[in-house]
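Hey team,

Filing this mostly as a record. A colleague (T.K.) asked me to run one chain through the structure pipeline before their review meeting, and I want the input and output archived in the tracker in case anyone asks later how it was produced. No errors, nothing strange. Just documentation.

Input sequence:
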Amino acid sequence: MVFISINGIKQKAKYVTSLFGGKPGELVIYPGSSGRTDDRYLEITVWRHFTEKNPTTGVDKFNLPRPGMKIELL
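Output structure:
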């Protein structure tokens, strides 16, 4: 597990190898498809089936962060 702070909001996320490495509903951080093949940019999201009435994603967990906001791995 890793703690992440974005937009002044601290959340706990599981570091996984891909988007599908966690459980549905779990906040995950993983190497994405962008960046060099040996040094990928990290992506953060909540893996969902989107069958919930009000599904949330990573953007909801951090109160609608915007580009340029400070990101900290704690």
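Quick notes for T.K.: Helices lie at 58-61. The chain has one domain: 2-73.
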